[in-house]
């Protein structure tokens, strides 16, 4: 082969240009196999230029590595709860940050099969930085014990991480701001079941406007996870006659839950 002619072709991007033309034609050349062959040609051409010391092309090892990995399935790297909490930081993303005392991120087993999701922190939760530690939390602990589990075997968190002033209902923009962190928590834990406690947790997870009285009593689906809505423990303190409904919901959960693990 004529070395001078080869040098001229390299300077003009002959090999890269030829490969890129093949790339644009790959859909008519036997689909994915042709695409992969074209990527191999591009990689080989850039590697040749890099080894020959040619300039004017991005032949860096980083670029070559990216091309070599095109078309491969991306690797999945799960976040940990610690990663998510670190990203949340001392959150100032919405108005609730102005009056909160402590962020209430969540508590429990990071590998739990069952996650309880409530609405938001109350006064005592805001003081301690842990979910469900007040009177409603004591009732939730009794509910968990009644289904033959303990708090250290489940995970407990809320839709929003900061206490609303005077324990008012969370506003839509506050839920929207905090929801990505809840979604990431669930993704990190990857539970088999979620028990949605109360209207806001159920409606948020199920993207529904139906009242909790209509959502409870049956399982729903959240990204392949079984979701059982039920009344919030704080609601039960005000309406003790509804405890029977919650117990019926918990019996459904016990029938589904795999206790052997």
Describe the structure.
The protein has helices spanning 3-11, 14-24, 31-51, 61-69, 81-88, 123-128, 135-146, 172-189, 199-206, 212-215, 233-238, 243-256, and strands at 107-108, 114-118, 155-158, 193-197, 220-222, 225-230. With 261 residues, it is an alpha/beta fold. The chain has two domains: 3-69, no CATH class; 86-256, Uracil-DNA Glycosylase, subunit E (3-Layer(aba) Sandwich), CATH 3.40.470. The protein has a six-stranded mixed β-sheet with strand order 1-3-2-4-6-5, with helices on both faces. Strand 5 and strand 6 (225-230) form a beta hairpin. The chain is elongated, with a radius of gyration of 28 Å. The protein starts with a helix and ends in a 5-residue tail after the last helix.
Which terms summarize this structure?
disordered N terminus, 261 residues, alpha/beta, Uracil-DNA Glycosylase, subunit E
Short structural description:
This protein has 261 residues and is an alpha/beta fold.
Helix-strand topology string = HHHHHEEHHEHEHHEEHH
Average pLDDT works out at: 85
Helix percentage: 40-55%
- Supply the number of helical segments: 12
Number of strands: 6
Q: Could you tell me how far the N terminus lies from the C terminus, measured between alpha carbons in angstroms?
A: 68 Å
CATH architecture classification name of the largest domain:
3-Layer(aba) Sandwich
- Low-confidence runs of at least 5 consecutive residues: 1-29
Q: Which fold does the CATH topology of the largest domain refer to?
A: Uracil-DNA Glycosylase, subunit E
Q: Which secondary structure elements does this structure contain, and how are they paired or packed?
A:
Layout: H1 3-11, H2 14-24, H3 31-51, H4 61-69, H5 81-88, E1 107-108, E2 114-118, H6 123-128, H7 135-146, E3 155-158, H8 172-189, E4 193-197, H9 199-206, H10 212-215, E5 220-222, E6 225-230, H11 233-238, H12 243-256
Parallel strand pairs: 2-3, 2-4, 4-6
Antiparallel strand pairs: 1-3, 5-6
